[in-house]
Amino acid sequence: MALPEFSMRQLLEAGVHYGHQTARWNPKMGQYIYGDRNGIHILDLTQTVPMLDQALKIVRDTVAKGGRILFVGTKRQAQKPVAEAAEKCAQYYMNHRW
After folding, report:
1. For residue 91, what are the CA distances in angstroms to 4, 65, 67, 82?
2. Phi, psi of 87 (to 5 degrees)
3. Is the pTM here over 0.85, yes or no?
4. Which has the closest alpha carbon to 73: 63, 62, 84?
5. pLDDT tens digit sequence for 21-59
6. 35: β partners
7. For residue 43, what are the β-bridge partners?
8. Phi, psi of 36 (to 5 degrees)
């Protein structure tokens, strides 16, 4: 199965670089934070792109071996897309708080 191709520009346009509020962050994420703007952390997309590519390969290989993937997205705006994506590829999902 071919992996989707994406560019840093596409991720930027999609808002992938926006993190959490600067007051609510995990210090373990510090190495992935590029900076902050208006109280929001900005993620370093130069690190995100290769890591996302690696994650996609792991997901592809897991599914190819018959493994299962759990899609998680509990925020209101993510609930429907998470459910649709998981159902489209016959995988599990959690789209509400537990």
Report:
1. 18, 14, 10, 10
2. -65, -35
3. no
4. 84
5. 999 999 999 999 999 999 999 999 999 999 999 999 999
6. 42
7. 33
8. -140, 155
User: Rounded CA gap, 76 and 84, in Å?
Assistant: 14
Pull the structure tokens for residue 50: 């290769």
CA angle 64, 48, 38 (to 5 degrees): 140
Q: How many CA atoms lie within 13 A of 30 on its CB side?
A: 2
The span from the first CA to the last CA of the chain, in angstroms, equals 33
Find the DSSP H helices in the chain: 8-13, 45-64, 76-88
The span from the CA of 93 to the CA of 34, in Å, is 31
CB-based contact 43:32 (threshold 8 Å): yes
